[in-house]
Amino acid sequence: MQQREVDIAIIGAGSAGLSAWHAARRHSDSVVLIEGGAFGTTCARVGCMPSKLLIAAAEAAHRARDAGGFGIRVSGVEVDGTAVMTRVKQERDGFVGRVFKSMRRIPDQDRLEGHARFVDPHTLSVGDHTRVTARNIIIATGSRPTWPGMFDAAGDRLIINDDVFAWDDLPESVAMFGPGVIGLELGQALHRLGVRLRVFGVGGALGPFRDEKVRASAEAAFNEEFYVDPDARVEKIERDGDAVVITFVERDSGETLTERFDYLLAATGRRPNVDRLDLEKAGLALDERGVPRFNRFTLQCLNADESPSHLFIAGDANQELPLLHEANSEGRIAGDNAGRFPELRAGRRNVPLAIVFTEPQMATVGEGYATLEKRLGGCDCLAVGEASFEDQGRALVMRENRGLMRVYAEQGSGQFLGAELLGPRVEHMAHLLAWALEQKLSVGQMLAMPWYHPVVEEGLRGALRDLNANLKLGPAITERCMECGPGD
Ligand SMILES: Cc1cc2nc3c(=O)[nH]c(=O)nc-3n(C[C@H](O)[C@H](O)[C@H](O)COP(=O)(O)OP(=O)(O)OC[C@H]3O[C@@H](n4cnc5c(N)ncnc54)[C@H](O)[C@@H]3O)c2cc1C
Ligand SMILES: NC(=O)c1ccc[n+]([C@@H]2O[C@H](COP(=O)([O-])OP(=O)(O)OC[C@H]3O[C@@H](n4cnc5c(N)ncnc54)[C@H](O)[C@@H]3O)[C@@H](O)[C@H]2O)c1
Predict the structure, then answer these.
(1) Are residues 253 and 300 in the same domain?
(2) Domain total in the chain
(3) Residue 483: inside a domain, yes or no?
(4) Same domain, 23 and 86
(5) How many A from CA of 179 to the centre of ligand 2?
(6) pLDDT tens by residue, 85-143
(7) Of 157, 148, 171, the residue nearest 241 (C-alpha)
(8) CA 349 – CA 296 distance, rounded (Å)
(9) From the CA of 108, how far away is ligand 1's center (Å)?
(10) Atom 18 of ligand 2, nearest CA residue
C-alpha cells in the first residue's frame, strides 16, 4: 500500500471535481484528484451532451415529417438508426476528447485511479493500492440512476440512460419508466426516431413542474405526440425470451393491455454516490438520505457534533441542484475554500435555472411555484400571471403553438420571483427571466424593456402584463395592439 500526504484530496473527476481541482491549485501544488470510474465526466459521456445529440437527430426527423404542414412535401422520411447512433457517438467522443485535452493540464502524479473510501476523517483508501492523508477533502462523487426492485424482472433488458448511448442501432420499442427530465427528453427523442414508446410514471409527476396548471398543460401537449401516463397502473413486468412484457391499464381506455418491448428504460431518478464512501468514518452529520449536511454558500460539511468540518461536498453528490452549471460553480467554491481553509469565503450562487430540451421545451426559474406558494401563498403575498402559446403569433407561424407560461411576483413590492415555462424555445426566455431575477427587477421594470416583434418573447410579455395587472400596481395594461398583429 502506497502512502500519499497532500493538502487537498478531491474524490471524483467529474465536472465538479475538475472545477474544484483548478480552484484548489490556485492555493496549493499539493492537490490530488481521485477517479474510481471512467474519466470524461457524466455530462460529456452519458449526460447532457449525448442526450442533446440524440434530440438533435430526432428534431431533424420531426421537421422533415412536419414539413407537410407548411405545404412542403417531403416523401419517404427514413431514420437510419445505425447512422444516427454513429453520429451521436462520434460527436460525443469529440466532447469527451475535449475533457481529456483539458485534463492534460493535470500532472500525472496529481491523478489517482481507484475507488476512494474514508478510513478516518483525514484518510482515504484508494482501490487497494494507495492510502491518502489530506488536510481537506472534497466529495465530488456525482450521482447514479436508481429504480424500484420490481424492474429487475426485466433482467438484462433493464437499461439506464448510459446504455442508450452505447447502442449501435435503435431498437424497435422501449417502455420508459419515469416521465421526469431524462424520461421526457430521451422518450420524445426515441419516439421521433421511430421507436415504439410508452412512458409510465407514478403519482402524476411530470417533468420539472410544480405548478399544476403548467404540469397539466405539459401532460396534454406530450400526449398529443406519444403515450405518457404520469399516474400509471402497471400490473406486471416479466421477461419472455428477449422481450420485456408489461401488463398495464391504458390511461384513456381503462383496458388492461399486455405489450412486449425490447427494453425497459429506468429514468426514475438518481441517487447521490455517497453510500459507498464509508461516510460513517468521516465524522459527518448526515441528513435523512445519508447525504452530508453542508452550507450551500461555502460547500463546507458539518461534523456530527455540528462543528464545521474540513470536508466539502460539491455537484450531484449533494443533490441540491443536480445540474451541470451548478456542479461547476459548486466545485469552484469548494476548491477555493478547501484551499483557503480554515478562512472560508461565501461563494456567489446564481438563482435556480433549469431547462429541459423537449418540444415544447420546459423550464423553471427561481425557487419554483410549490416553494413560493408555501412561503408567500398563505398571506396572499404571491401574484401569478399567465399566457398560453396557443394563439401566440410567432409560435403559430412556426407551428409550435403549444404550451403555457406562469410567472410569479411578490405582492406589494412587485418584485419578480420566478416562472414555470412550457413552450417553443423557452430556453432563451428562461435565461432572460433568470437574468431579471438576478437583477431583482420588478415586473414593471421588466415590461419597460425592449420587446421585438414578431418573437415568441411577446408571449412572455403577455404573461408579465397579466402578472402586472394582478399586482394592481399599474401602469394600466395595454390592450392588444391590433396593428402589431397577433402576438402583441
Ligand atoms: C441523461 C442526462 C442528461 C443530462 N442533461 C443535462 C443538461 O442538459 N443540462 C444540465 O445542466 N445537466 C444535465 N444533466 C446533469 C449533469 O450531467 C450533472 O449534474 C453533472 O454531470 C454532475 O457533475 P458531477 O461532477 O457532480 O458528477 P460526475 O460528472 O458524475 O462526476 C462524479 C465522478 O465521481 C466518480 N466517483 C464516484 N464515487 C467515487 C469514489 N468513491 N471514488 C472515486 N471516484 C468516484 C464517478 O466515477 C464520476 O466520474 C444530465 C444528466 C443526465 C444523466
Ligand atoms: N436538461 C437538463 O438539464 C437535464 C436533463 C436530464 C437530467 N438532468 C438532471 O438529472 C436529474 C435526474 O433526472 P431524472 O429524470 O432521473 O429524475 P426526475 O426526478 O426528473 O424524474 C424521475 C421521474 O420518475 C418518476 N418515478 C419515480 N419512481 C417511479 C416508478 N416506480 N415508476 C415510474 N416512474 C417513477 C418520478 O415521479 C419522476 O417523474 C434531474 O433532476 C436533472 O437535475 C437535467
Answers:
(1) no
(2) 3
(3) no
(4) yes
(5) 7
(6) 999 999 999 999 999 999 988 999 999 999 999 999 999 999 999 999 999 999 999 99
(7) 157
(8) 8
(9) 22
(10) 180
- CATH number of the structural domain spanning residue 407: 3.30.390.30
Phi, psi of 454 (to 5 degrees): -100, 120
Co-location of 141 and 11 in the same domain: yes
Q: Looking at residue 311, which CATH number applies to its domain?
A: 3.50.50.60
Return the pLDDT at 479.
57
The residue to mutate among 324, 326, 361, 362, having the most atoms of ligand 1 within 8 angstroms of its beta carbon, is 324
Amino acid of residue 330? E
Is residue 485 in some structural domain?
no
- Ligand with the closest atom to the CA of 234: 2
Buried b (16+ CB within 10 A) or exposed e, 151-188: bebbeebbbbbeebbebeebbebbbbbbbbbbbbbbbb
Q: What is the pLDDT of residues 146-189, one digit of tens each?
A: 999 999 999 999 999 999 999 999 999 999 999 999 999 999 99
277, 263: one domain: no
Whether residue 322 sits in one domain with residue 357:
no
Considering the domain architecture, whether residues 313 and 182 belong to the same structural domain is answered as: no
Domain final residue pick, 248, 268, 288:
268
For the beta carbon of residue 240, count every other beta carbon within 10 angstroms: 9
In contact, 202 and 290? CB cutoff 8 Å: no
Q: What is the pLDDT of residues 208-245, one digit of tens each?
A: 999 999 999 999 999 999 999 999 999 999 999 999 99
Which ligand has an atom closest to residue 269 CA? 2
Res 272 pLDDT > 70:
yes
- Using most ligand atoms within 8 A of CB, pick from 43, 88, 132 the residue to mutate for ligand 1: 43
| C-alpha of residue 210 to centroid of ligand 2, in Å | 13
Q: Is 475 among the domain residues?
A: no
* pLDDT tens digits for range 393-439: 999 999 999 999 999 999 999 999 999 999 999 999 999 999 999 99
The number of the ligand nearest the C-alpha atom of 142 reads 1
User: Model confidence over 431-461: pLDDT tens digits?
Assistant: 999 999 999 999 999 999 999 999 999 999 9
> Is 347 part of a structural domain of the chain?
no
CA 437 to CA 193: how far, in whole Å?
A: 37
136 shares its domain with 47: yes
- 389 is in which domain, residue-wise? 353-470
Nearest-angstrom CA–CA distance, 82 and 87 = 9
Domain boundary among 249, 268, 287: 268
Residues 15 and 118 in one domain: yes
